[in-house]
Backbone:
């Protein structure tokens, strides 16, 4: 597991207007795709966060997973203690580009019912996480 530097932002630092890169939160904890669901839940609890950035073996962002999703997987009938993050099909993408507008990206997130979205650069590196404003 690799932790990313974090920057704190106040709730008022999320204007609806502007670019995604100007309004995103720090990426937070990043984990590898081969991590088990149980370990990922433990990392979330220790980091006191509701989501994790998931990366491949090269350290590139492949998606984001939430506590709610991991809990649902763990509670499902097909779950085993060997279930890995890469086994969860909806962990892959989507992503937000840093130069998209926040308003446009939030509309897309609401349409897809996403509460958080990783922001990645053109190489696939996680830059941060965009969360819906209330």
Residues:
């Amino acid at each position: 597991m690799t932790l990313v530097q974090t920057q704190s932002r106040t709730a008022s630092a999320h204007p609806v207007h502007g670019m995604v890169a100007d309004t995103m939160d720090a990426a937070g904890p990043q984990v590898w795709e081969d991590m088990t669901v149980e370990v990922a839940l433990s990392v979330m609890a220790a980091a006191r966060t509701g989501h994790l950035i998931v990366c491949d073996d090269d350290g590139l962002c492949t998606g984001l997973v939430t506590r709610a999703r991991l809990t649902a997987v763990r509670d499902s009938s097909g779950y085993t203690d060997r279930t890995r993050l890469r086994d969860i099909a909806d962990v892959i993408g989507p992503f937000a580009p840093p130069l998209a507008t926040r308003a446009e990206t939030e509309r897309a997130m609401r349409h897809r019912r996403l509460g958080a979205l990783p922001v990645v650069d053109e190489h696939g590196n996680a830059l941060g996480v965009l969360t819906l404003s209330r």
Summary: Residues 1-13 have pLDDT under 50 and may be disordered. The longest strand covers residues 61-66. The chain has one domain: 2-6+17-131.
